[in-house]
Design goal:
With 173 residues, the protein is an alpha+beta fold. Helices cover 35% and strands 24% of the residues. It has a 5-stranded mixed beta sheet. A two-stranded antiparallel sheet has the order 2-3. Strand 2 and strand 3 form a beta hairpin. It is elongated, with a radius of gyration of 23 Å.
């Protein structure tokens, strides 16, 4: 997949050792790495063409969650939650490696491996992933705004040139 030129290299973000989950006024520290299960990483990549639902690459607009045995879950970005810039998120795909999800004591992986079990650990990880996807999507949105501004300035400059040429025809007379 050809990336957006300004975001050519995949972005690697280490999964934190712990995440604080806040719900209903309470806080809980969630462990995402320990001696047995090393720290994971989130890898986000971009595509120069949108990975929207009906496009030929639409199935790639997702985050695959991997563990020691391979992909344990997969979330389309619109299903992930916690992403505000969904239009720009259509240009993002990635993978999150988080071995601790396969800890049998936590029971985070479903047998069908389509999504994770809905518990505090998986919710906090999905929220963390969504926040990082949203940050990248926001950077893409800023790039788009700059391109639009530059195009508008160019168009206004051309219009001013035409108006000046028209004005100068009459001013000389």
């Amino acid at each position: 997949i050809t990336p957006i030129p300004e975001f050519g290299k995949p972005i690697e973000i280490p999964v934190p050792q712990t995440i604080v989950w806040e719900e209903y006024g309470g806080k809980e520290t969630i462990l995402l790495a320990n001696e047995k299960y090393p720290q994971g990483k989130l890898v986000l990549s971009t595509s120069c063409e949108p990975l929207s639902r009906n496009s030929r690459l639409g199935d790639l607009n997702r985050i695959d969650i991997t563990g020691e045995i391979g992909v344990v879950a997969s979330y389309k970005l619109q299903e992930l939650g916690y992403v505000n810039h969904l239009t720009q998120a259509e240009f993002i795909y990635g993978e999150c490696h988080c071995p601790i999800l396969e800890d049998t004591n936590d029971d985070c992986v479903k047998n069908d491996r389509s999504t994770l079990v809905d518990n505090v650990k998986t919710k906090s990880l999905r929220k963390w992933i969504g926040e990082h996807v949203d940050k990248l999507a926001e950077k893409i949105a800023e790039k788009e705004k700059k391109e639009i501004r530059a195009k508008n300035i160019e168009t206004l400059s051309e219009i001013n040139k035409v108006l000046n040429d028209w004005k100068n025809k009459f001013m000389s007379k």
